[in-house]
Amino acid sequence: MAPGYSPDNLFKLDAKRKVRFMVLVIFVVAISAAFFVYPAVWDKAAQKINIFSPFRVPQFIKVPFKLGLDLAGGTRLIYIADVSGIAGQDVGSAMSGLRDVIERRVNLFGVSEPIVEVENAVDERRLIVELAGVKDIASAISLIGETPFLEFKESIEETETQKILNEQKAGNKEFLAADPYFKPTNLSGRYIKSAKVTFDQNTYQPEVSVQFDDEGAKIFEELTTKNVGKQLGIYLDGLPISAPVVREPISGGSAVISGKFTPSEAKKLAERLNAGALPVPIKLISQDSVGASLGQDSLDKSIFAGIIGFLVVSLFMIIYYRFPGIVAVIALLIYTALVLSLFKLIPVTLTLAGVAGFILSIGMAVDANILIFERIKEEVRFGKNLGLAINDGFSRAWPSIRDSNISTLITTAVLYYLTASVVKGFALTLGIGVIVSMFSAIFITRSLLKLFPLYYLEKWPRLI
After folding, report:
1. Where can this protein be found (predicted)?
2. How many CB atoms lie within 10 A of CB 103?
3. Fewer Cβ close by (within 10 Å): the C or N end of the chain?
4. Alpha-carbon distance 70 to 295, whole Å?
5. Same structural domain for residues 444 and 326?
6. How many domains is the chain built from?
7. Which residues contact 462 (CB under 8 A, 6 or more apart)?
8. Same domain assignment for residues 267 and 188
9. Is the peptide bond before 347 cis (omega within 30 degrees of 0)?
10. Residue 64 region by backbone torsions, left for phi larger than 0, else alpha for psi between -120 and 50, else beta
11. Would you call 213 exposed, middle or buried from its count of C-beta atoms within 10 A (0-12, 13-18, 19+)?
């Protein structure tokens, strides 16, 4: 065996190589993430290289950040839903269906990352629609507002019809808005599975044939069974378009809507019903616009605030912790690149609140490093050598880092699932930042510290 050789030396050599390999992987991933976040630097270098290089360097993949309404500009629409004709226990289901339909229709229109939420007030139900970066706002509003509200009504008794007509003639306000011929049923456009244009075999007039889903087919069969020999009113957006007489119970969930349509009108109605008919009627009550220039100004100020915050935190770490502070700043740069690349990959819709959550997570990432460095200092004061102090400092600081971050993650989860969209953006970016910060503090910072020869630090103890 060679002089000075021992299994311990071999283990140390392998450990050093392992650390160097891990640091290399960290930097490769971090640099790739940085170019992914800001590919312009890569592209400029590639253009210069391609001038004289025989091998063409491709441009870096480009994935834009998804910006929310307050950063990209756009429109916020507030609708009020009329749920007066729906039983109390079914209102929540109807509003959920309304949200899904509007979101699906806006997506078909091409709106990027629409936010559609239900807001429950004491005496009314509202639908909040946020359209970020929309160019043709008027068409989007028209698309939502013109979504057909289809409902099926059954005829009422002649005595009841006469009573309503008499009350209306007498000017009774309670009956002025009442329909004297038909009353609402549980069957509406929310149960439509598909719709297509057909033509009447006798008159050759265009019609719209609809197919209900399983629940709608069951309701339709019960409705036709109950009203054999009577008229069944078909209303579109509150107006009667057809009132066929039910000859026999209809099973299978198929119905035909006729109303003197032109072919283009029938086609348009079928398309809208396929995209989703509204389960309840809605009315636009508010429209707020955010200009693109105002959104860009907010974004610029947010980025500036983030840079200032990063520089101040970095300056504090370097002055107070010296060499470990420099390591923490490098780890913080890597952390920033990783988090921003995750925002693009997931993707996360960034709002002003989301940017604030990200900036806050930078401070929390530094907080984990502070706990580790203070613990290392304590271990050194106890007389341990630097290598052992670093190992013990990380292992003993971990429980505090873990518990504090888990409590923060619990809070972000509660905020995300139980609050409105603005707070959700804050909670999501903060939660992602906290998860990555644990990895950064324990894995990246530790690997960077172990990469530096410890005997230099032991020779100049003022560096730590």
Report:
1. Cell membrane
2. 17
3. N
4. 5
5. yes
6. 2
7. 322
8. yes
9. yes
10. beta
11. middle
Q: Which two tokens stand for residue 434?
A: 């906290």
pLDDT for res 411:
95
Position 359, amino acid: I
Find the CATH number of the domain harbouring 273.
Answer: 3.30.1360.200
The reported pLDDT for the residue numbered 142 is: 72
Computed over every residue of the chain, the mean pLDDT equals 83
| Secondary structure in 3-state letters for 218-271 | HHHHHHHHHCCCCEEEEEECCEEEECCECCCCCCCCEEEECCCCCHHHHHHHHH
Can you give the pLDDT at residue 327?
Answer: 92
Give the pLDDT of residue 131. Answer: 82
Hey, what are 90's tokens? Answer: 């079914």
Half-sphere exposure (Cβ direction) of 209: Cα atoms closer than 13 Å: 9
Which tens digits make up the pLDDT trace of 252-295?
888 887 777 788 878 877 766 666 667 778 888 888 777 766 66
Q: Are residues 58 and 98 in the same domain?
A: no
Q: Identify whether 166 is part of a domain.
A: yes
Report d(CA 187, CA 190) in Å as an integer: 8
Give the pLDDT confidence score for residue 113 in this predicted structure.
59
The answer to whether the beta carbons of residues 427 and 416 sit under 8 Å apart is yes
Tokens 């880092």 correspond to 401
For residue 447, give the CATH number of its domain: 1.20.1640.10
Which has the closest alpha carbon to 278: 26, 86, 27?
A: 86
Can you tell me the mean pLDDT for 21-42? Answer: 94
Is residue 374 domain-shared with residue 276, that is, in the same domain?
Answer: no
- Per-residue pLDDT, 2: 47
User: pLDDT tens for residues 308-320?
Assistant: 988 998 999 999 9
Label residues 219-249 b or e (16+ Cβ within 10 Å = b). Answer: bbbebbeebeeebbbbbbeeeebbbeebeee
Examine residue 187 and state whether it is found in any structural domain, yes or no.
yes
The per-residue DSSP string of 116-166 comes to EEEEE-SS-EEEEEEEET-S-HHHHHHHHHT---EEEEEE--HHHHHHHHH
pLDDT band at 112 (very low <50, low <70, confident <90, very high): low
Distance separating alpha carbons of residues 436 and 365, to the nearest angstrom? 8
CA–CA gap between residue 247 and residue 303 (Å, rounded): 69
